[in-house]
Amino acid sequence: MPRGFLLLIAAQFTSALADNALLIVAIALLQQQGLPGWWAPLLKFSFTLSYVLLAPVVGPLADAVPKARLMAWMNGLKMLGLGGMLLPLHPVLAYAVVGLGAAGYAPAKYGLVTELVPPQRLVAANGWIEVSIVCAALLGTVVGGGLVSAPMQALGLNVSLVGLLALYGLAALLQWGVPDSGARYPQAAWHPLALSRDFWRAHRRLWRDAAGGLSLSVTTLFWGVGAVLQFAVLRWATERVGLGLDQAAYLQAVVALGVVAGAAGAGRFVPLRRAMRVLPAGIALGGLIAAVAPLSTLGPALPLLVLTGAVGGILVVPMNALLQHRGHQLLTAGRSIAVQGFNENLSVLGMLAVYAGLHALALPLVPLMMGFGGLIAVFMVALMVRRGARRRALASGAGQR
């Protein structure tokens, strides 16, 4: 891989590490303030909101300035949000500012990948990206668990926040070393109506493309599922197994280990032209989530959690690579990532809102997770049936000609 891509990986890893550790610390702040458990998913909701609201803007912004420089600016915005927790600002509001920085960061990061790496290496590059994201999630939850452990709580959570501030600073320094790819795009009109029209045209074009629309459906489902699973595993660990928040955070790392293995395997063995062959993994993902729900001991649950993560990694890496490839062919790099981010994060918002609402209504965890897993499996079956019908229709049309 090019040296610039490796620097991008290092910067992305450091920033994502801080994001994931900060989420655990923010949950601890909510608990310290005596707020009920359903507030925890609202942290992720506030973080994700900017991805959806600013989707028409962040794509053209990523195409208008050097992407590595924009990433460093967005990391500075994350640092401001973290500083808000030290003031103290309400954790949900402060985490929303961090999400604002992340929303501008994402299209620059993924757009830069398509500019630095040739198409035949995109699946492998996405394998690297997803492994770095999941490793950051893994280590971030471990770091976050350590930062909210009893010894650190005795020192005060502000000490933990200062440490995370330094981590964001390191990420910003690494991003300044990522080279400019040299790619330049036509200047977009910055009038709000013009931006909105441009975004919705791009949105329709990507959804109407056969490969682009299907891969976008899968990644949209995956990231919504992942957001809910993050909080469901925490709740499962505390309610069903009786672990504390710090130990439950470590358990999230078990899922992340599986994702690392699945993403690495997909990046190594699944070429871009065969990306569609991983679709059955989505059915398995839903079944595994449902299978974990009724368990109450770690012995049988741990291998299932690792397998759940692995199946998710196998599914998302080829789909993400296919989506980026088609998006870059149909649109610009920044615009295609902005459309992708809008849909995936709208899914995150919707699923988190439903999960938080059901949690507030005291719906038991086991039927919630089992129903959630079943719906995922049904959705993936429907996508596969639709793809099969479209292929048969195209084959029939070709035969008639």
Q: What class do helices, strands and sheet pairing give?
A: mainly alpha
Question: Cα distance, first to last residue?
Answer: 44 Å
Query: In terms of per-residue confidence, which ranges show pLDDT below 50 for 5 or more consecutive residues?
Result: none
Order of helices and strands: HHHHHHHHHHHHHHH
The number of helical runs is 15
Strand element count: 0
Kindly describe this structure:
- With 401 residues, the chain is an all-alpha fold.
- Helices cover 83% and strands 0% of the residues.
- The radius of gyration is 21 Å and the shape is globular.
- The mean pLDDT is 84.
Summarize the structure.
With 401 residues, the protein is mainly alpha-helical. It has 15 helices and no strands. It starts with a helix and ends with a helix.
What's the layout of helices and strands?
Elements: H1 3-32, H2 40-53, H3 55-64, H4 67-86, H5 91-116, H6 122-147, H7 150-155, H8 157-176, H9 192-208, H10 210-239, H11 245-269, H12 280-292, H13 298-330, H14 333-360, H15 365-400
